[in-house]
Design brief:
The protein is an all-alpha fold. It contains 2 helices and no strands. Helix content is 77%, strand content 0%. Helix 1 packs across helix 2. It has one domain.
Length: 88
């Protein structure tokens, strides 16, 4: 998974730089160091995005477990059934 995220980020950074040069009608590989910088920043961005998504899933699971436990305590924990009978 980390290799895929790194490759996707690098391609994203390279594509962004080449698109920027194309919009300005400059040669695609005008300053190669900008492409390397874009690839590095893209890789870092996508890797951080993957880490954030994983931590978000963990936090969501914790919150759902807490909510489920609270609901079980509320409805099934101390439940006393009162049966009322009426005689006709």
């Amino acid at each position: 998974m980390p290799a895929t995220a790194t490759i996707v980020g690098a391609v994203l950074g390279l594509g962004t730089q080449m698109y920027s040069n194309a919009l300005r009608k400059l040669p695609y590989m005008r300053h190669p160091w900008e492409h390397v910088l874009g690839m590095g920043l893209g890789a870092i961005f996508v890797n951080q995005l993957v880490k954030w998504d994983e931590s978000l899933k963990e936090d969501l699971d914790k919150m759902l477990d807490k909510a489920k436990a609270a609901n079980e305590r509320r409805y099934f924990g101390e439940c006393v059934f009162v049966v009322e009978t009426q005689l006709f």
